[in-house]
Specification:
This protein is α/β, with parallel strands linked by helices. It folds into three domains: about 220 residues, 3-Layer(aba) Sandwich (Rossmann fold); about 150 residues, Rossmann fold, CATH 3.40.50.1220; about 190 residues, Thiamin diphosphate (ThDP)-binding fold, Pyr/PP domains (Rossmann fold). It contains 21 helices and 21 strands. The strands form five sheets. A six-stranded parallel beta sheet has the order 4-3-5-6-8-7, with helices on both faces. It has a six-stranded parallel beta sheet with strand order 17-16-18-19-21-20, sandwiched between helices. The longest helix has 22 residues. It is globular, with a radius of gyration of 26 Å.
Length: about 575
């Protein structure tokens, strides 16, 4: 059975018969006007602008149309991640629009992140006419296909052919990749002739764009050979980032009721069940691998995108399961353990629903209890550790933060050590966790959080970051108005603390200068330079009191905890040794 789903709204549905006769001001560039109709027809509402001159036709068109929600962000790199934050939170396409030249290049970090996370970002770049490219004109580079393989599709339009019927067909074809089962960024480049500021009066019903029609297959038949591979086997499901789709949590929880099934989960997956193993590294560290075969599955099923845990990657590379099934519409990143047997391009919720109907559960195998008993012991040991640990270190701060996170908060985690520390603590069922793990870069994490907070103004958002990520993306604080529902916690260890934790850099003579890159920048002064009030704490006892006040205060503020950079890795090692003795 197939079900048709309409994306977006019909123009007549949006405007109604009365409003359809009204006149509005718009650009005299027909191709830009037509583009706006296509975006409306397909429900693309949020447009993130970076100021410039050559993209004036876009600004005139979108600003004069009340359908669109426009945002103006000066820094293009910030703008790119800001748009990504809106897209990931609302689960819908968002458009970026910039002038010509290096402006478009500054979108590249966000575009690559969107590509590896299948997020639908639409880049609309203004360009000079083709005849002027590489002729010495200012703010002019080779923008055609500039993002290469990091977008699903790209196309350049010539202003002179604006009335061509084929342009409308091309635009609609390009937009399709924002809604497909394998979504991703799309780039449309527009070679525009001067003048750029012409305005015309437009009747809203001048042009009718078609809506995107998406066909979804709701039934999935699982072949007998695949069913046979699951019968009587130890099965482990590993959930990567953004794994959750409608119905998956329920179907996976039902599948996990069998004693031969274990579900390993990270907070970035969007999934939760108390019976899942929700802290992979914490549990793996407590396993006695002298009996390691008891924990190796016969069948590994992976869903979602990036997996944070290095330990689980090393575990499965060393202990390859007999069968690895990847369930993902995308071809990218599915063979994580270099041992892929089956790739199913299906909806994971439909897969597990189908499997549940087949009665393949095998309750004679106690695979789940072996994993879960270790997980529960490790959780108890973690609490015991904090009863005896008394240090002003990163791990102590994260313990306190996780104690006071409120229900229904949206948590944004910066990369490197922050996102890894957060995996040691059980996720909260009603809390959503985000991190830019597509490319795992240091850039854009605060900008992403700002975009997300603006798109969900009635929810509390907390951005947790290290000092390097905070400083690197500090222009995110330039966004105005800054969302009052976003709070920022900075764990300041005066450098890239991750390099004192991972093997290799921590024993290198180049640790301080080249890897950790110890610095003397003042996080508080940077925040104050953007007009933010902030507090600095260096004692974890005082931090707890400040944290309580921080979460109860409605005013946007930044809480900074300064930790001991040399003591941090020692405290983490103490924790893992303590868990190991569970």
């Amino acid at each position: 059975m197939e079900r048709n789903r309409i994306k977006g709204k019909n123009l007549n549905q949006h405007y109604g018969k009365t409003i359809a006769l009204c006149i509005m001001k718009t650009s005299d560039k027909q191709i830009i006007r037509n583009l706006s109709f296509h975006l409306k027809a397909n429900g693309i509402r949020h447009i993130v602008f970076s100021p410039g001159s050559r993209n004036a036709p876009f600004a005139i068109t979108f600003d004069n149309d009340s359908y669109f929600k426009t945002h103006v962000i000066h820094d293009e790199r910030v703008a790119g991640f800001f748009a990504l934050g809106i897209s990931q939170t609302l689960n819908e396409p968002v458009a970026l629009c910039c002038t010509s030249g290096s402006a478009v290049v500054n979108y590249f970090p966000a575009i690559t992140e969107a590509f590896y996370r299948n997020l639908p970002l639409l880049t609309l770049s203004a360009d000079r006419p083709k005849k002027l490219i590489n002729k010495g004109h200012g703010q002019t580079i080779m923008q055609d296909d500039i993002f290469g393989k990091h977008v699903m599709k790209s196309h350049s339009f010539d202003d002179n052919s604006a009335n061509s019927e084929s342009n409308n067909e091309i635009i609609q074809t390009m937009l399709k990749h924002l809604f497909d089962s394998v979504k991703g960024p799309v780039h449309l480049n527009f070679h525009l002739n001067e003048p750029l500021y012409g305005i015309v009066d437009l009747s809203i019903d001048e042009f009718k764009a078609e809506q995107m029609l998406i066909n979804e297959t709701r039934e999935l038949k699982v072949n007998n050979e695949l069913l046979e591979s699951l019968n009587g086997k130890k099965i482990l499901v590993l959930c990567g980032q953004d794994a959750n789709v409608e119905g998956l949590n329920r179907a996976l929880s039902e599948f996990n009721q069998s004693t031969n099934v274990v579900v390993l989960n990270e907070n970035t997956s969007g999934l939760y069940d108390a019976h899942f193993i929700n802290c992979i590294d914490r549990t793996l560290n407590a396993i006695d691998f002298s009996n390691g075969q008891d924990f190796i599955p016969d069948v590994l099923i992976t869903i979602g995108d990036a997996v944070i845990s290095k330990r689980i990657k090393a575990f499965f590379i060393k202990n390859a399961p007999k069968t690895h099934i990847a369930i993902n519409h995308s071809d990218i990143g599915i063979d994580l353990f270099l041992r892929l047997d089956v790739h199913l391009k299906v909806n994971p919720a439909h897969f597990f629903e189908a499997i549940n109907l087949q009665n393949t559960k095998t309750n004679s195998i106690n695979f789940e209890s072996k994993w879960k008993s270790i997980d529960l012991v490790a959780k108890d040991r973690l609490e015991e550790f904090y009863n005896i640990e008394n240090s002003n270190t990163d791990i102590q701060v994260f313990h306190l933060i996780n104690q006071y996170i409120e229900n229904k908060t949206i948590i944004h985690m910066a990369n490197s050590s922050v996102v890894r520390y957060m995996q040691l603590f059980d996720p909260i069922k009603t809390v959503r966790y985000f991190a830019n793990r597509g490319t795992s870069g240091i850039d854009g994490s605060m900008s992403t959080a700002v975009g997300s907070a603006i798109s969900k103004p009635r929810q509390n958002h907390v951005f947790i970051t290290g000092d390097i990520s905070f400083i690197y993306d500090s222009n995110a604080m330039w966004v105005s108005p800054f969302p009052s529902n976003l709070k920022i916690i900075v764990i300041d260890n005066s450098g890239g603390g991750i390099f004192r934790i991972i093997d290799g850099p921590r024993t290198s003579d180049q640790l301080e200068n080249y890897f950790e890159a110890h610095h003397k920048s003042d996080v508080k002064k940077i925040a104050e330079g953007f007009g933010f009030t902030s507090k600095v704490v260096s004692d974890h006892h005082k931090f707890e009191n400040e944290l309580i006040d921080f979460f109860q205060n409605d005013i946007t503020q930044i809480l900074i905890f300064k930790t001991n950079r040399t003591e941090n890795p020692l405290a983490l090692n103490r924790l893992f040794k303590f868990l190991k003795n569970a």
